[in-house]
Amino acid sequence: MVGLLVPDKNGNFKDIVLGFDNCKSYLSAEEKYFGAVVGRYGGRIAHGKLILDGITHQLDINNNSHSLHGGTGGFHSVVWDMQQVNDATIQLNYASADGEEGYPGNVKVTVTYSLTDDDALVMHFKVSTDKKTVTNIFNHNFWNLNGEGCGSVEQHQLMIDASHFLAVDSSLIPVGMEAVGDTPFDFSAFREIGERIHEHHEQLLYGNGYDHNYVLNKGVTEQPQLVASVIGDQSGIRMDIFTTEPGLQLYSCNFLKGLHQLKCGAKDEFRSAVCLETQHFPDSPSQASFPSVILDAGRTYRSETIHKFSRTM
After folding, report:
1. Which residue range is the domain that position 270 belongs to?
2. Which one of 43, 58, 116, 271 has the largest count of C-beta atoms within 10 Å of its C-beta?
3. Which DSSP string do the residues of the chain spell out, in sequence order?
4. Spatial distance between the Cα atoms of 136 and 245, rounded to a whole number of angstroms
5. Whole-number Cα distances in Å, 281 to 33, 234, 239
6. How far is CA 9 from CA 157, 163, 180, 192, 241, in A?
7. What's the number of domains the chain is made of?
8. Are 35 and 19 in contact (CB under 8 A)?
9. Does the pLDDT of residue 174 top 80, yes or no?
10. pLDDT band for position 30 (cuts 50, 70, 90)
11. Does 202 have pLDDT greater than 80?
12. Which residues are catalytic?
């Protein structure tokens, strides 16, 4: 997704998704995931070890000693087939071959993006396979609700309906579930993203800010439910997030370095966006207590996320 135009509190349209004006920049950027669909498995898998039915599959290692977002050749770096279904809908299709980036199974993926008359962006994901595999596929937009190039998102107001988050080790692999209460991770009520981001907290030090998965109170659901809301402090644009997924990865873009020029002419500066990734949990294939991400042959995985936009005055 290259951009998304939404009216602010004064009725002026703002492009609230960071992106570039040419393909080369997407492929060469140090941060590879601007606006991308990530998979076959979004998030980290420890040491790239995937064990299914006693067979170990070695996945591509591309993030320290781990596999991240499907590996170097993940879904973010391939060419998808696209068709325009109607004036408000596009459909993306990709066939991932057995063994691609180390994953078993020939996988067919369909992603549909739709704009609705009530100011919503609907994302629908569908995955099928001919052999047991794992999948965790989602959109990786970089959001700034004040508009691309409008500075830090630390003053954005954020609410997440989650009483727990996944604590991580120094390499950002989950090591346990912790309550958000009385910690900088408590967004159970609206609070500025940056209000406590600079505190000397071990988890914030590991991620250089927020790079953590929230365990949504609703769990996995058949229909999308409201799980998070964020408001641009300057624009008044409000984004409500509904999803069927059990987790939400909050990433405060702590590794952007201002190395690349965005389509508006500004640079991708440190914390100039926030990612709110609706997903299953990172490293789920290695952690039996997490909701399953296994997709059996002949079965279809479906997921839906809705971003609903409104204005505060």
Report:
1. 5-311
2. 43
3. ----EEE-TTS-EEE-B---SSHHHHHH-SSTTTTEEE-SB-SEEGGGEEEETTEEEEPPP-BTTBEETT-TTSGGGSPPEEEEEETTEEEEEEEEPTTGGG--S-EEEEEEEEE-TTSEEEEEEEEEESS-EE-B-EEE--B-TT-TTS--STTSEEEE-EEEEEEE-TTS-EEEEEE-TTSTT--SS-EETTSSTTS--HHHHHHTS-EEEEEETT-S-SS-EEEEEEE-TTT-EEEEEEESSSEEEEE--TT--S-SB-TTS-B--TTS-BEEEEESPTTGGG-TTSPP-EE-TT-EEEEEEEEEEEE--
4. 10
5. 18, 32, 22
6. 15, 31, 32, 19, 19
7. 1
8. yes
9. yes
10. confident
11. yes
12. 140, 277
- Asked whether residue 243 carries a pLDDT value surpassing 90, the answer given is yes
Instruction: Give pLDDT tens digits for 33-52.
Output: 999 999 999 999 999 999 99
Amino acid at 264: C
70-84 b/e (C-beta count within 10 Å ≥ 16 → b)? bbeebbbbbeeeeee
| CATH code for the domain in which residue 144 is found | 2.70.98.10
Tokens of 95: 């066939």
| Structure confidence at residue 244 as a pLDDT band (50, 70, 90) | very high
